[in-house]
Specification:
This protein is α+β, with helices and mostly antiparallel strands. It has helices spanning 22-26, 44-58, 66-79, 123-127, 151-162, 205-216, 229-233, 265-279, and strands spanning 2-5, 8-11, 29-37, 40-41, 85-92, 110-117, 130-136, 167-172, 175-179, 183-188, 191-193, 221-222, 237-242, 246-253, 256-257. The strands form two sheets. Strands 7, 8, 9, 10, 11, 12, 13, 14 and 15 form a nine-stranded mixed sheet that branches. Bound molecules: 4'-deoxy-4'-aminopyridoxal-5'-phosphate.
Length: 280
């Protein structure tokens, strides 16, 4: 497939960065994953705005403006034949002359983008739901920055997989935050809830879309400051949302059924609404 590296389009296997790249050495780097449906980016502007915020929070120079990103990604998607893709975009602080914790502030950022297939979901994930486990959150506190420092996330996801689960839901001081690569929603006493945004939650683009859809559909919803693990265990529905998963119903939590153990009616409604949007 075709990749983009520092202004050039080239074969993915030929895209190489220096071992001195601060993204490689220190995860001094941010990223986005943007879903494409039939060659069109879904929520592209929101992803690019979040990317700009991540760059600002780390003080990394913006390699290009919104229009520049749109042009690069359009050319990349076209070169990869369009269709249903996940576009990965990463910007690192750049390549200093020597390894040094201290930041050199005039580096030229490294820009990498490539596409992966976005295969259709396993139908069982939608008919039966997925299993999730809860886990103590060991990540740092700056989770609003979409940085590539994902070690705690990948270890938690791997531990979940080892327990036969599809996602780990991270809990800190008894409060439910988010999944390792998703946001969390629940239906509790008939109300749709997702934890209010804070430092330790990524403002998910899909999370925002689902809240908008709930508002438009008149679904009673709230963003509580604290969603306790106890409250989550009493939910009639639990979902995880992300650009790749869209909305997955969680029907088993830590081995116990969620509600009646089947995807629930509020999920069905929101899933249909989101499907209609991505089909547009
Ligand atoms: N939280 C984390 C930690 C994530 O990695 C992701 C996936 N990017 C999400 C939430 C969901 O965000 P989005 O809907 O923008 O994909």
């Amino acid at each position: 497939s075709t990749a983009f590296l520092n202004g050039e389009f080239l074969a993915l296997e030929d895209a190489k960065v220096s071992v001195l790249d601060r993204g490689f050495l220190f995860s001094d780097s941010v990223y986005e994953v943007i879903p494409y449906y039939d060659g069109r980016g879904f929520g592209l502007d929101a992803h690019l705005q979040r990317l700009a915020r991540s760059l600002d929070m780390l003080g990394i120079a913006h390699p290009c403006d919104m229009d520049g990103w749109r042009r690069i990604l359009a050319e990349l998607v076209e070169a990869n034949g369009g269709g249903d893709l996940a576009v990965y975009l990463q910007i690192t602080r750049g390549v200093p002359e020597r390894r040094d914790h201290r930041i050199t502030h005039d580096l030229t950022p490294t820009v990498v983008a490539f596409c992966q297939d976005r295969p259709p979901h396993d139908p069982a994930a939608l008919t039966d739901g997925i299993a999730a486990v809860t886990q103590e959150d060991t990540r740092w506190h700056y989770c609003t920055i979409k940085s590539t420092s994902l070690l705690a996330n990948v270890l938690a996801a791997d531990a979940a997989r080892a327990q036969g689960a599809n996602e780990a839901i991270m809990v800190r001081d008894g409060a439910v935050l988010e999944g390792t690569s998703s946001n969390v929603f629940a239906v509790i006493d008939g109300q749709l809830v997702t934890p209010a945004l804070r430092d330790t939650i990524l403002p998910g683009i899909t999370r925002g879309v689902v809240l908008d859809l709930a508002a438009r559909d008149g679904v009673d919803h709230a963003e509580p400051e604290t969603l306790t693990l106890d409250a989550l265990r009493g939910a009639s529905e639990i979902w995880v949302t992300s650009s790749i998963r869209e909305i997955f119903p969680v029907t088993r939590l830590d081995g116990a059924p969620v509600g009646d153990g089947k995807p629930g009616p509020v999920w069905t409604q929101m899933q249909e609404r989101l499907q209609a949007m991505t089909d547009e």
